[in-house]
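Q: Convert this sequence to structure tokens.
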Amino acid sequence: MIQMVPVSSSNLRAVGYDPNTQTLRIEFHSRTYDYYNVPASIHSGLMNASSKGQYHYAHIKNSYRYKKIG
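A:
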């Protein structure tokens, strides 16, 4: 089970990461997605980014396979 951490962002509500499966879960305000084969460095970059929405757009959105889960 992926533990979700609330984040301060206008686009993202919470973020979780499973290092064993390299699954990054992002809960937006209206939907939730799992991104697959995401390195831990990308998760760390997202969590430390001043703009999580911009980081997601630049480094995650079109770079990793994903599935809408909610």
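The two ends are 15 Å apart (CA to CA).
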